[in-house]
Design a protein that fits this description.
The chain is an alpha+beta fold and 78 residues long. The protein has two helices and four strands; from the N terminus they run βαββαβ. The chain is 38% helix and 38% strand. It has a four-stranded antiparallel sheet with strand order 2-3-1-4, covered by helices on one side. The radius of gyration is 12 Å and the shape is globular.
Length: 78
C-alpha cells in the first residue's frame, strides 16, 4: 500500500533558486534510491512537501529530512 506524509517547515534563510536546486538535486537522488516519489513546494521561507512510497521508507526519509539544517519546525499535515 502506498503511504503518504505531508509536512511544512520553515527555512533558516530565504529560499532562492540556487538553494532550491541544491535541495532538489539531493532529494531526487535520495528519493530515487529509496523508491520514494513526492512533491516539494518552496517559497519565501516555507517548504511544503509530500512524500509517497513504502511506509518504512517514507518514515526513514522524513527522519532524515527533519535533521536537515536548511529548515526547522517540521509539522506533519497528513
Amino acid at each position: 500500500a502506498m503511504y503518504r506524509l505531508c509536512y511544512i517547515s520553515t527555512a533558516r534563510q530565504p529560499i532562492d533558486e540556487i538553494l532550491c536546486q541544491r535541495i532538489l538535486d539531493v532529494s531526487q537522488r535520495n528519493n530515487r534510491a529509496d523508491g520514494i516519489t513526492g512533491l516539494l513546494i518552496a517559497g519565501s521561507q516555507r517548504f511544503l512537501q509530500a512524500l509517497e512510497g513504502e511506509e518504512a521508507a517514507v518514515r526513514r526519509t522524513f527522519e532524515r529530512i527533519k535533521r536537515d539544517p536548511h529548515h526547522f519546525a517540521c509539522v506533519i499535515l497528513e
